[in-house]
Amino acid sequence: MKDSGAPASLVVRIAVLGLALVFVQIGVISEVPVLGVSVDVSPLLVADVGLLCGSTLGALTGFAVGLLVDLMLVQTLGLSSLVFTVIGYWAGRLRELRDPQAALTPLLVGGAAVATATVGYSLFEFLLGVDAPVSLELLRQMVLEVVLDTLLALPMWLLVRRVLYPSLPDDPRRRRRRAYTTGGLSPLSRT
Amino acid sequence: MYDKTVRRRRAVLVLLVALSLILLTAYFREAPGGGLHSVQRGFLTVISPIQDGANKALKPVRDLFGWVGDTLHAKGQRDELRKQVERLQAELIARQGDERSYAELLKLFHLDGQISAADYTPVSATVVAKSPSLWYQTVTIDAGTARGVRLEDPVINGEGLVGKVTLASSDAAVVSLITDSEVGVSAMVNSTGVSGIVQPKVGDPNDLLLQYLPTRPIPNPGDYVVTAGTVAGKGESLFPRGIPIGQVSSIDENSPYREVNVHPLANLHNLDVVQVLTTVPGSRAARLASAVASLPPASSGGGEAATPAGQLASAGGGG
Protein backbone atom coordinates (compact mmCIF):
# COMPACT_ATOMS: atom_id res chain seq x y z
CA MET A 1 0.00 0.00 0.00
CA LYS A 2 1.26 3.45 -0.71
CA ASP A 3 1.19 5.87 2.18
CA SER A 4 -0.41 8.59 0.10
CA GLY A 5 -4.15 8.51 0.06
CA ALA A 6 -4.89 5.83 2.64
CA PRO A 7 -8.51 4.80 2.10
CA ALA A 8 -10.94 6.25 4.60
CA SER A 9 -12.27 2.78 5.41
CA LEU A 10 -8.77 1.68 6.39
CA VAL A 11 -8.31 4.66 8.69
CA VAL A 12 -11.71 3.98 10.27
CA ARG A 13 -10.85 0.32 10.78
CA ILE A 14 -7.51 1.23 12.41
CA ALA A 15 -9.25 3.77 14.67
CA VAL A 16 -11.96 1.32 15.77
CA LEU A 17 -9.46 -1.49 16.29
CA GLY A 18 -7.14 0.81 18.24
CA LEU A 19 -9.92 2.07 20.51
CA ALA A 20 -11.31 -1.41 21.14
CA LEU A 21 -7.91 -2.92 21.88
CA VAL A 22 -6.89 -0.11 24.23
CA PHE A 23 -10.16 -0.56 26.17
CA VAL A 24 -9.69 -4.34 26.33
CA GLN A 25 -6.04 -3.85 27.30
CA ILE A 26 -6.87 -1.48 30.16
CA GLY A 27 -10.06 -3.17 31.29
CA VAL A 28 -9.17 -6.85 31.01
CA ILE A 29 -5.63 -7.75 29.97
CA SER A 30 -3.90 -5.45 32.47
CA GLU A 31 -6.00 -6.86 35.29
CA VAL A 32 -5.07 -10.46 34.59
CA PRO A 33 -1.43 -10.77 35.62
CA VAL A 34 0.55 -13.72 34.32
CA LEU A 35 3.53 -14.75 36.48
CA GLY A 36 3.34 -11.39 38.24
CA VAL A 37 3.46 -9.14 35.16
CA SER A 38 0.81 -7.56 32.99
CA VAL A 39 0.77 -8.31 29.30
CA ASP A 40 0.68 -5.24 27.01
CA VAL A 41 -0.65 -5.67 23.49
CA SER A 42 -0.49 -1.98 22.50
CA PRO A 43 3.05 -2.15 21.01
CA LEU A 44 2.03 -5.27 19.08
CA LEU A 45 -0.97 -3.47 17.60
CA VAL A 46 1.17 -0.53 16.49
CA ALA A 47 3.88 -2.79 15.00
CA ASP A 48 1.28 -4.85 13.13
CA VAL A 49 -0.36 -1.75 11.66
CA GLY A 50 3.07 -0.51 10.56
CA LEU A 51 3.88 -3.89 9.04
CA LEU A 52 0.60 -3.94 7.11
CA CYS A 53 0.10 -0.30 6.20
CA GLY A 54 3.54 1.30 5.99
CA SER A 55 5.60 3.77 7.96
CA THR A 56 3.38 6.85 7.87
CA LEU A 57 0.22 5.11 9.02
CA GLY A 58 2.30 3.08 11.48
CA ALA A 59 3.76 6.22 13.04
CA LEU A 60 0.38 7.99 13.12
CA THR A 61 -1.25 4.95 14.74
CA GLY A 62 1.58 4.76 17.26
CA PHE A 63 1.17 8.41 18.20
CA ALA A 64 -2.62 8.13 18.53
CA VAL A 65 -2.58 4.88 20.52
CA GLY A 66 0.17 6.23 22.79
CA LEU A 67 -1.73 9.44 23.43
CA LEU A 68 -4.92 7.52 24.20
CA VAL A 69 -3.10 5.21 26.64
CA ASP A 70 -1.43 8.15 28.40
CA LEU A 71 -4.70 10.06 28.63
CA MET A 72 -6.74 7.11 29.88
CA LEU A 73 -4.23 5.96 32.45
CA VAL A 74 -3.19 9.48 33.53
CA GLN A 75 0.45 8.75 32.77
CA THR A 76 3.17 11.17 31.67
CA LEU A 77 1.67 12.65 28.51
CA GLY A 78 3.77 12.11 25.39
CA LEU A 79 5.87 9.21 26.68
CA SER A 80 3.88 6.35 25.15
CA SER A 81 3.26 8.46 22.02
CA LEU A 82 6.98 8.89 21.46
CA VAL A 83 7.84 5.23 21.99
CA PHE A 84 4.92 3.93 19.91
CA THR A 85 5.56 6.42 17.08
CA VAL A 86 9.08 5.07 16.72
CA ILE A 87 7.80 1.46 16.81
CA GLY A 88 5.11 2.10 14.18
CA TYR A 89 7.50 3.94 11.89
CA TRP A 90 10.22 1.32 12.23
CA ALA A 91 7.82 -1.57 11.50
CA GLY A 92 6.49 0.30 8.46
CA ARG A 93 9.98 1.02 7.12
CA LEU A 94 10.90 -2.63 7.56
CA ARG A 95 7.96 -3.57 5.35
CA GLU A 96 8.74 -0.87 2.77
CA LEU A 97 12.44 -1.65 2.52
CA ARG A 98 12.62 -5.43 2.98
CA ASP A 99 9.06 -6.66 2.58
CA PRO A 100 9.80 -9.73 4.74
CA GLN A 101 7.77 -12.75 3.69
CA ALA A 102 8.66 -15.33 6.35
CA ALA A 103 5.78 -16.68 8.41
CA LEU A 104 7.61 -15.82 11.61
CA THR A 105 8.12 -12.17 10.65
CA PRO A 106 5.19 -10.89 12.78
CA LEU A 107 6.57 -12.82 15.76
CA LEU A 108 10.05 -11.34 15.39
CA VAL A 109 8.75 -7.83 14.67
CA GLY A 110 6.33 -8.12 17.61
CA GLY A 111 9.13 -9.26 19.92
CA ALA A 112 11.36 -6.40 18.79
CA ALA A 113 8.47 -3.91 19.21
CA VAL A 114 7.70 -5.09 22.73
CA ALA A 115 11.38 -5.04 23.69
CA THR A 116 11.72 -1.51 22.28
CA ALA A 117 8.63 -0.38 24.20
CA THR A 118 9.79 -1.94 27.49
CA VAL A 119 13.37 -0.64 27.24
CA GLY A 120 12.21 2.74 25.88
CA TYR A 121 9.78 3.22 28.76
CA SER A 122 12.42 2.26 31.28
CA LEU A 123 15.03 4.58 29.78
CA PHE A 124 12.64 7.52 29.78
CA GLU A 125 11.51 6.78 33.33
CA PHE A 126 15.13 6.81 34.45
CA LEU A 127 15.71 10.05 32.54
CA LEU A 128 12.63 11.58 34.17
CA GLY A 129 14.05 10.78 37.58
CA VAL A 130 12.43 7.60 38.87
CA ASP A 131 14.45 6.48 41.85
CA ALA A 132 15.03 2.83 40.93
CA PRO A 133 18.33 1.12 40.26
CA VAL A 134 18.62 -1.55 37.61
CA SER A 135 18.13 -4.64 39.74
CA LEU A 136 17.96 -8.29 38.82
CA GLU A 137 14.30 -8.42 39.82
CA LEU A 138 13.45 -5.49 37.55
CA LEU A 139 15.35 -7.07 34.65
CA ARG A 140 13.58 -10.38 35.30
CA GLN A 141 10.20 -8.65 35.13
CA MET A 142 11.12 -6.81 31.95
CA VAL A 143 12.35 -9.97 30.24
CA LEU A 144 9.26 -11.86 31.39
CA GLU A 145 7.02 -9.11 30.00
CA VAL A 146 8.82 -9.17 26.65
CA VAL A 147 8.56 -12.98 26.43
CA LEU A 148 4.85 -13.06 27.35
CA ASP A 149 4.00 -10.22 24.95
CA THR A 150 5.96 -11.91 22.16
CA LEU A 151 3.90 -15.07 22.65
CA LEU A 152 0.85 -12.98 21.75
CA ALA A 153 2.48 -11.51 18.65
CA LEU A 154 1.14 -14.11 16.20
CA PRO A 155 -2.48 -14.10 17.44
CA MET A 156 -2.39 -10.29 17.43
CA TRP A 157 -1.02 -10.28 13.87
CA LEU A 158 -3.81 -12.59 12.73
CA LEU A 159 -6.42 -10.39 14.41
CA VAL A 160 -5.05 -7.10 13.05
CA ARG A 161 -4.61 -8.53 9.55
CA ARG A 162 -8.10 -9.98 9.56
CA VAL A 163 -9.62 -6.64 10.54
CA LEU A 164 -7.56 -4.47 8.18
CA TYR A 165 -7.16 -6.79 5.19
CA PRO A 166 -10.46 -5.99 3.43
CA SER A 167 -9.54 -2.29 3.34
CA LEU A 168 -5.91 -2.69 2.30
CA PRO A 169 -5.28 -1.59 -1.26
CA ASP A 170 -3.43 -4.06 -3.50
CA ASP A 171 0.13 -4.09 -2.32
CA PRO A 172 3.11 -5.46 -4.18
CA ARG A 173 3.02 -8.71 -2.23
CA ARG A 174 -0.58 -9.43 -3.14
CA ARG A 175 0.01 -8.47 -6.79
CA ARG A 176 3.03 -10.74 -6.98
CA ARG A 177 1.18 -13.69 -5.50
CA ARG A 178 -1.73 -13.28 -7.89
CA ALA A 179 0.64 -12.90 -10.82
CA TYR A 180 2.33 -16.23 -10.17
CA THR A 181 -0.86 -18.13 -9.51
CA THR A 182 -2.71 -16.96 -12.61
CA GLY A 183 0.00 -18.43 -14.82
CA GLY A 184 0.07 -15.77 -17.51
CA LEU A 185 1.64 -12.80 -15.83
CA SER A 186 4.88 -14.22 -14.49
CA PRO A 187 7.92 -12.51 -15.99
CA LEU A 188 9.32 -15.98 -16.70
CA SER A 189 6.32 -16.97 -18.81
CA ARG A 190 6.91 -14.05 -21.15
CA THR A 191 10.36 -15.28 -22.19
CA MET B 1 6.64 11.71 -6.97
CA TYR B 2 9.00 9.42 -5.01
CA ASP B 3 10.83 12.40 -3.49
CA LYS B 4 7.53 13.91 -2.44
CA THR B 5 6.48 10.68 -0.70
CA VAL B 6 9.82 10.41 1.08
CA ARG B 7 9.70 14.05 2.17
CA ARG B 8 6.18 13.69 3.48
CA ARG B 9 6.99 10.47 5.34
CA ARG B 10 9.97 12.08 7.04
CA ALA B 11 8.01 15.21 7.81
CA VAL B 12 5.28 13.17 9.50
CA LEU B 13 7.85 11.33 11.62
CA VAL B 14 9.64 14.51 12.66
CA LEU B 15 6.32 16.21 13.42
CA LEU B 16 5.04 13.35 15.60
CA VAL B 17 8.32 12.94 17.48
CA ALA B 18 8.55 16.70 18.05
CA LEU B 19 4.92 16.80 19.23
CA SER B 20 5.56 13.92 21.65
CA LEU B 21 8.67 15.61 23.03
CA ILE B 22 6.85 18.92 23.46
CA LEU B 23 4.00 17.16 25.29
CA LEU B 24 6.46 15.21 27.44
CA THR B 25 8.47 18.27 28.42
CA ALA B 26 5.46 20.49 29.04
CA TYR B 27 3.69 17.83 31.09
CA PHE B 28 6.75 17.02 33.15
CA ARG B 29 7.51 20.65 33.95
CA GLU B 30 4.03 21.92 34.74
CA ALA B 31 2.37 21.83 38.16
CA PRO B 32 -0.36 19.23 38.87
CA GLY B 33 -2.96 21.97 38.35
CA GLY B 34 -1.54 22.93 34.93
CA GLY B 35 -3.26 22.89 31.55
CA LEU B 36 -2.20 19.43 30.36
CA HIS B 37 -3.08 17.87 33.71
CA SER B 38 -6.49 19.56 33.49
CA VAL B 39 -6.97 18.15 29.99
CA GLN B 40 -6.13 14.71 31.36
CA ARG B 41 -8.63 15.14 34.21
CA GLY B 42 -11.28 16.32 31.76
CA PHE B 43 -10.61 13.33 29.52
CA LEU B 44 -10.91 11.05 32.54
CA THR B 45 -14.29 12.60 33.37
CA VAL B 46 -15.53 12.07 29.82
CA ILE B 47 -14.13 8.57 29.42
CA SER B 48 -14.98 7.20 32.89
CA PRO B 49 -18.63 6.28 32.09
CA ILE B 50 -17.45 4.46 28.95
CA GLN B 51 -14.70 2.78 30.92
CA ASP B 52 -17.21 1.80 33.55
CA GLY B 53 -19.54 0.30 30.93
CA ALA B 54 -16.69 -1.52 29.19
CA ASN B 55 -15.47 -2.79 32.54
CA LYS B 56 -18.89 -4.25 33.35
CA ALA B 57 -19.24 -5.76 29.88
CA LEU B 58 -15.78 -7.33 30.01
CA LYS B 59 -16.05 -8.55 33.60
CA PRO B 60 -17.06 -12.10 32.63
CA VAL B 61 -13.92 -12.40 30.48
CA ARG B 62 -11.75 -11.12 33.30
CA ASP B 63 -13.46 -13.42 35.78
CA LEU B 64 -12.87 -16.40 33.50
CA PHE B 65 -9.13 -15.75 33.37
CA GLY B 66 -9.11 -15.03 37.10
CA TRP B 67 -11.02 -18.25 37.78
CA VAL B 68 -8.40 -20.32 35.94
CA GLY B 69 -5.59 -18.74 37.95
CA ASP B 70 -7.48 -19.01 41.23
CA THR B 71 -8.31 -22.67 40.68
CA LEU B 72 -4.64 -23.49 40.17
CA HIS B 73 -3.74 -21.94 43.52
CA ALA B 74 -6.88 -22.86 45.46
CA LYS B 75 -5.81 -26.21 46.87
CA GLY B 76 -2.49 -25.02 48.26
CA GLN B 77 -4.14 -21.95 49.73
CA ARG B 78 -6.89 -24.01 51.38
CA ASP B 79 -4.40 -26.23 53.23
CA GLU B 80 -2.37 -23.24 54.30
CA LEU B 81 -5.47 -21.39 55.51
CA ARG B 82 -6.70 -24.37 57.54
CA LYS B 83 -3.42 -24.43 59.45
CA GLN B 84 -3.61 -20.67 59.92
CA VAL B 85 -7.19 -20.86 61.27
CA GLU B 86 -6.19 -23.49 63.84
CA ARG B 87 -3.28 -21.38 65.02
CA LEU B 88 -5.31 -18.17 65.10
CA GLN B 89 -8.17 -19.72 67.07
CA ALA B 90 -5.83 -20.55 69.92
CA GLU B 91 -4.29 -17.07 69.70
CA LEU B 92 -7.71 -15.40 69.70
CA ILE B 93 -8.79 -17.10 72.90
CA ALA B 94 -5.58 -16.02 74.61
CA ARG B 95 -5.92 -12.42 73.39
CA GLN B 96 -9.59 -11.85 74.22
CA GLY B 97 -8.88 -11.34 77.90
CA ASP B 98 -5.94 -9.02 77.11
CA GLU B 99 -8.10 -6.98 74.78
CA ARG B 100 -10.72 -6.35 77.43
CA SER B 101 -8.09 -5.19 79.90
CA TYR B 102 -6.48 -2.98 77.24
CA ALA B 103 -9.77 -1.24 76.43
CA GLU B 104 -10.37 -0.56 80.12
CA LEU B 105 -6.87 0.90 80.50
CA LEU B 106 -7.31 3.14 77.44
CA LYS B 107 -10.51 4.55 78.92
CA LEU B 108 -8.89 4.97 82.30
CA PHE B 109 -6.07 7.08 80.87
CA HIS B 110 -8.28 8.89 78.29
CA LEU B 111 -6.42 7.38 75.35
CA ASP B 112 -9.46 5.95 73.59
CA GLY B 113 -9.98 8.85 71.18
CA GLN B 114 -7.53 7.67 68.55
CA ILE B 115 -8.59 8.09 64.95
CA SER B 116 -9.19 4.76 63.23
CA ALA B 117 -10.71 3.57 59.98
CA ALA B 118 -14.11 3.60 61.71
CA ASP B 119 -13.98 7.42 61.85
CA TYR B 120 -13.99 7.64 58.06
CA THR B 121 -16.85 7.21 55.62
CA PRO B 122 -16.02 4.37 53.25
CA VAL B 123 -17.07 4.84 49.62
CA SER B 124 -17.09 1.62 47.62
CA ALA B 125 -15.74 1.79 44.09
CA THR B 126 -14.92 -0.57 41.26
CA VAL B 127 -11.55 -0.64 39.54
CA VAL B 128 -12.20 0.19 35.89
CA ALA B 129 -8.68 0.48 34.51
CA LYS B 130 -5.15 -0.55 35.37
CA SER B 131 -1.86 0.48 33.84
CA PRO B 132 0.03 -2.41 32.21
CA SER B 133 3.37 -0.64 32.64
CA LEU B 134 5.91 -1.70 35.26
CA TRP B 135 6.48 1.98 35.92
CA TYR B 136 2.97 3.12 36.74
CA GLN B 137 1.41 1.35 39.72
CA THR B 138 -1.95 3.06 39.39
CA VAL B 139 -5.58 2.05 38.95
CA THR B 140 -8.62 4.09 37.96
CA ILE B 141 -11.80 3.73 40.03
CA ASP B 142 -15.37 4.73 39.23
CA ALA B 143 -15.89 7.07 42.19
CA GLY B 144 -14.87 10.71 42.22
CA THR B 145 -15.42 14.03 43.88
CA ALA B 146 -19.19 13.74 43.32
CA ARG B 147 -19.19 10.95 45.91
CA GLY B 148 -16.91 12.72 48.34
CA VAL B 149 -13.57 11.35 47.15
CA ARG B 150 -10.72 13.82 47.68
CA LEU B 151 -7.02 13.86 46.92
CA GLU B 152 -4.88 11.88 49.37
CA ASP B 153 -7.82 9.82 50.67
CA PRO B 154 -6.67 6.35 51.80
CA VAL B 155 -7.89 3.40 49.73
CA ILE B 156 -8.35 -0.08 51.20
CA ASN B 157 -9.90 -3.41 50.31
CA GLY B 158 -10.89 -6.44 52.36
CA GLU B 159 -7.26 -7.55 52.63
CA GLY B 160 -5.54 -4.32 53.63
CA LEU B 161 -4.15 -1.00 52.45
CA VAL B 162 -4.27 -0.49 48.69
CA GLY B 163 -3.02 3.07 48.16
CA LYS B 164 -4.14 6.68 48.07
CA VAL B 165 -6.07 8.93 45.70
CA THR B 166 -3.68 11.01 43.59
CA LEU B 167 -6.09 12.46 41.05
CA ALA B 168 -9.83 12.98 41.31
CA SER B 169 -12.36 14.11 38.74
CA SER B 170 -16.13 14.24 39.27
CA ASP B 171 -16.89 10.59 38.44
CA ALA B 172 -13.52 8.87 38.58
CA ALA B 173 -10.27 8.92 40.49
CA VAL B 174 -6.77 7.61 40.04
CA VAL B 175 -5.36 5.60 42.92
CA SER B 176 -1.59 5.26 43.31
CA LEU B 177 -0.96 1.83 44.80
CA ILE B 178 1.34 1.36 47.79
CA THR B 179 3.85 -0.14 45.35
CA ASP B 180 4.00 3.13 43.37
CA SER B 181 7.26 5.02 43.71
CA GLU B 182 5.40 8.18 44.80
CA VAL B 183 3.72 6.58 47.82
CA GLY B 184 5.23 6.29 51.30
CA VAL B 185 3.34 5.13 54.37
CA SER B 186 4.26 5.56 58.01
CA ALA B 187 3.91 2.08 59.44
CA MET B 188 4.71 -0.05 62.42
CA VAL B 189 5.36 -3.68 63.14
CA ASN B 190 2.19 -4.78 64.88
CA SER B 191 3.80 -7.19 67.34
CA THR B 192 6.44 -4.79 68.67
CA GLY B 193 5.09 -1.33 67.85
CA VAL B 194 8.36 -0.13 66.29
CA SER B 195 7.67 2.27 63.46
CA GLY B 196 9.27 3.17 60.16
CA ILE B 197 8.28 4.09 56.64
CA VAL B 198 6.97 1.62 54.08
CA GLN B 199 8.02 2.39 50.53
CA PRO B 200 8.13 0.40 47.30
CA LYS B 201 11.20 -1.76 47.05
CA VAL B 202 13.37 -0.12 44.43
CA GLY B 203 13.96 -2.47 41.55
CA ASP B 204 11.09 -4.73 42.54
CA PRO B 205 7.79 -3.05 41.76
CA ASN B 206 5.71 -5.72 43.50
CA ASP B 207 7.29 -5.63 46.94
CA LEU B 208 7.66 -3.18 49.81
CA LEU B 209 10.42 -2.13 52.13
CA LEU B 210 9.99 -1.01 55.75
CA GLN B 211 12.82 1.40 56.43
CA TYR B 212 14.28 3.65 59.14
CA LEU B 213 13.58 1.19 61.95
CA PRO B 214 15.45 1.31 65.24
CA THR B 215 18.06 -1.40 65.71
CA ARG B 216 16.01 -3.12 68.44
CA PRO B 217 13.70 -4.99 68.61
CA ILE B 218 14.21 -6.97 65.43
CA PRO B 219 11.03 -7.90 63.56
CA ASN B 220 10.49 -11.53 62.68
CA PRO B 221 9.43 -12.97 59.35
CA GLY B 222 5.66 -13.38 59.43
CA ASP B 223 5.05 -10.29 61.60
CA TYR B 224 2.26 -8.04 60.35
CA VAL B 225 2.97 -4.44 59.38
CA VAL B 226 0.13 -1.94 59.87
CA THR B 227 -0.32 1.79 59.34
CA ALA B 228 1.06 3.84 62.21
CA GLY B 229 -1.52 6.65 62.06
CA THR B 230 1.21 9.25 61.66
CA VAL B 231 2.75 11.21 58.81
CA ALA B 232 6.40 11.83 58.07
CA GLY B 233 5.96 15.32 56.66
CA LYS B 234 4.00 17.66 54.41
CA GLY B 235 2.49 16.02 51.35
CA GLU B 236 2.07 12.59 52.86
CA SER B 237 -1.36 11.07 53.33
CA LEU B 238 -2.68 10.41 56.79
CA PHE B 239 -3.64 6.76 56.86
CA PRO B 240 -5.74 5.79 59.89
CA ARG B 241 -3.92 3.69 62.43
CA GLY B 242 -4.06 -0.09 62.28
CA ILE B 243 -4.81 -0.80 58.62
CA PRO B 244 -2.90 -3.96 57.63
CA ILE B 245 -0.25 -3.29 54.98
CA GLY B 246 1.73 -6.49 54.68
CA GLN B 247 3.68 -9.26 56.26
CA VAL B 248 7.43 -9.28 56.94
CA SER B 249 9.07 -11.64 54.45
CA SER B 250 12.78 -11.13 55.22
CA ILE B 251 15.20 -8.74 56.91
CA ASP B 252 18.27 -7.15 55.34
CA GLU B 253 20.95 -7.00 58.02
CA ASN B 254 23.58 -5.51 55.70
CA SER B 255 21.76 -2.23 55.15
CA PRO B 256 22.99 0.84 57.09
CA TYR B 257 19.41 1.21 58.34
CA ARG B 258 17.61 -1.99 59.17
CA GLU B 259 15.55 -2.78 56.07
CA VAL B 260 12.66 -5.16 56.28
CA ASN B 261 11.10 -6.67 53.18
CA VAL B 262 7.32 -6.60 53.37
CA HIS B 263 4.95 -8.48 51.12
CA PRO B 264 1.66 -6.57 50.60
CA LEU B 265 -1.41 -8.30 52.02
CA ALA B 266 -3.75 -6.84 49.40
CA ASN B 267 -3.57 -8.61 46.07
CA LEU B 268 -2.69 -5.51 44.06
CA HIS B 269 -2.64 -7.45 40.79
CA ASN B 270 -6.25 -8.43 41.01
CA LEU B 271 -8.19 -5.51 42.42
CA ASP B 272 -11.90 -5.41 41.73
CA VAL B 273 -13.77 -3.54 44.47
CA VAL B 274 -12.02 -1.11 46.81
CA GLN B 275 -13.12 1.36 49.46
CA VAL B 276 -12.03 4.98 49.63
CA LEU B 277 -11.94 6.27 53.19
CA THR B 278 -13.50 9.69 52.82
CA THR B 279 -14.02 12.27 55.52
CA VAL B 280 -17.22 14.13 56.25
CA PRO B 281 -16.51 17.90 56.38
CA GLY B 282 -16.29 19.02 59.99
CA SER B 283 -15.67 15.54 61.36
CA ARG B 284 -12.72 14.78 63.60
CA ALA B 285 -10.97 12.86 60.82
CA ALA B 286 -11.45 15.77 58.39
CA ARG B 287 -10.09 18.28 60.89
CA LEU B 288 -7.10 16.08 61.51
CA ALA B 289 -6.47 15.64 57.78
CA SER B 290 -6.50 19.40 57.24
CA ALA B 291 -4.17 19.84 60.23
CA VAL B 292 -1.80 17.33 58.68
CA ALA B 293 -1.95 19.17 55.35
CA SER B 294 -0.76 22.34 57.08
CA LEU B 295 2.26 20.65 58.65
CA PRO B 296 5.61 22.23 57.82
CA PRO B 297 7.83 20.33 55.37
CA ALA B 298 10.08 17.62 56.84
CA SER B 299 13.15 19.22 58.36
CA SER B 300 15.50 16.96 56.39
CA GLY B 301 14.35 18.75 53.26
CA GLY B 302 14.65 15.60 51.28
CA GLY B 303 11.01 14.65 51.28
CA GLU B 304 9.45 11.75 53.01
CA ALA B 305 11.98 9.24 51.75
CA ALA B 306 14.75 10.96 53.64
CA THR B 307 12.79 11.52 56.82
CA PRO B 308 13.85 9.26 59.65
CA ALA B 309 11.16 7.66 61.70
CA GLY B 310 12.20 9.68 64.70
CA GLN B 311 10.83 12.82 63.06
CA LEU B 312 7.40 11.44 62.43
CA ALA B 313 4.76 13.99 63.18
CA SER B 314 2.17 12.20 65.19
CA ALA B 315 -1.26 12.90 63.86
CA GLY B 316 -3.23 10.02 65.18
CA GLY B 317 -2.83 10.72 68.83
CA GLY B 318 -5.92 10.48 70.83
CA GLY B 319 -7.55 12.32 73.61
Tell me what the structure shows.
The complex is a heterodimer of chains A (191) and B (319). In chain A, α1 runs parallel beside α3 and α2 packs across α7. The two termini of chain A are 29 Å apart. Chain A is globular, with a radius of gyration of 18 Å. Chain A has 191 residues and is an all-alpha fold. Chain A is built from nine helices and no strands. Chain A has a single domain, classed as Arp2/3 complex 21 kDa subunit ARPC3, CATH 1.10.1760.20. In chain B, a hairpin with a 2-residue loop joins β7 and β8. Chain B contains three helices and 14 strands. A six-stranded antiparallel beta barrel of chain B has the order 1-2-5-4-3-13. Chain B has a six-stranded antiparallel β-barrel with strand order 6-7-8-12-11-9. A two-stranded antiparallel ribbon of chain B has the order 10-14. Chain B folds into two domains: 29 residues; 204 residues, Thrombin, subunit H (Beta Barrel). Chain B is an alpha+beta fold and 319 residues long. The interface between A and B is large, with 60 and 58 residues.
Search tags:
heterodimer; A: 191 residues; mainly alpha; Arp2/3 complex 21 kDa subunit ARPC3; 9 helices; 0% strand; B: 319 residues; alpha+beta; 6-stranded antiparallel β-barrel; 6-stranded antiparallel beta barrel; disordered C terminus
In short:
The complex is a heterodimer of chains A (191) and B (319). With 191 residues, chain A is mainly alpha-helical. In chain A, 71% of the residues lie in helices and 0% in strands.
Roughly how much helix do the residues of chain B carry, as a percent range?
25-40%
CATH superfamily of the largest domain in chain B: Rod shape-determining protein MreC, domain 1
Which structural category fits the helices and strands of chain B? Answer: alpha+beta
Please indicate the percent range of residues of chain A in DSSP E strands (runs of 2 or more). Answer: under 5%
Q: Residue share in helices of chain A? A: over 70%
Portion in beta strands of chain B: 25-35%
What's the CATH first level of chain A?
Mainly Alpha
How would a crystallographer describe the biggest sheet of chain A? none
Sheet with the most strands, sense and barrel status of chain B:
6 strands, antiparallel, barrel
* Span of the ends, CA to CA of chain B: 82 Å
How many strands appear in the DSSP assignment of chain A? 0
- Strands side by side in the biggest sheet of chain B: 1-2-5-4-3-13
CATH topology (fold) name of chain A: Arp2/3 complex 21 kDa subunit ARPC3
Low-confidence stretches of chain B: 299-319
SS class of chain A: mainly alpha
The radius of gyration over CA of chain A amounts to 18 Å
Write the CATH fold name of the largest domain in chain B. Answer: Thrombin, subunit H
Question: If classified by CATH, what would the architecture of the largest domain in chain B be?
Answer: Beta Barrel
What is the overall silhouette of chain A?
A: globular
